[in-house]
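Lab notes, practical 5.
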Amino acid sequence: MITDLLVASIALAIPVLVAASGELVGERAGVLTMSVEGMMLTGAFAAVVGATASGSALTGVACGALAGLGVGLLQAALSVWLQADQIVTGLAVNALALAGTTFGARLLLERGTAVPGFSRVEIPFLADVPVIGPALFRQTGLGYALVGVVVVLAVLTSRRTGWGLAVDSVGEDAVSADRSGIPVLRVRFAAVLVVGVLSGLAGTQLALSEVHTFTDNITAGTGYLAVVAVIAGSWRPVGVAVAAVVFGLAQALQFTLPALGVDVPFALLVMLPYVLALLAVAGLVSHSRPPAGLTRSFVRSGRLA
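Output from the prediction step:
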């Protein structure tokens, strides 16, 4: 049963990890993208629609990524170009995504329709390693690919690369970054687009790899957990990955503990991931300092609003 718990934990942690990795880039650039939930939800819906219409799971992946990018464009326009409140606009986008995907599902999706998806791929020998082998090396092909994308993104945006330094400079002191020639608005706009694409792919992973369908509010707060994972992970890739696994474990307990016969109120198990999230936001998990310019809009005149 421990093996089953680990398998479920890693599977549920992958969408959180992918979305959080994108959000990490956005927050390091100074933009708090609260619309990760809406991006994931839209990506999941578009992936299912695309896969069902084309009969190809890969087409579904492309549709999910493009849908996330579209929501990212909307969020970037609001929070970067128009300098609207990042938290308010993010929550508004989430509400719009929930309403839009619920209505769209009624129009475009039929119950019982087979949805092309991804099956689990077992890596020989490695999957036979006791306990951790099945959890790490019996994931879907899309899951493996997305973990690879996360690793590549972490390398490309590390503080040892020009792009990584530009992202951190913009997030810490946008005025100084602008004076040194860094295009602040472009960097922030691009960072939010990264959040959109990664969140769309996270929703796609959830829909096509885990449940092979779309239901109303399929993400069920996973996007918010991704935002909190960045805080709990101290704005560092390794910390974010650990936080994602913890949240995945908390979600997996909802299914595995009842199967083990453990008498725990189901409502308490449902609450567990969000209780952990509240503890993280309250600073009980991480006491690290966020980027100094986080949520602060930039105006070219040299003042921060």
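Observations recorded by the TA: The radius of gyration is 19 Å. The CA atoms of residues 102 and 216 lie 6 Å apart.
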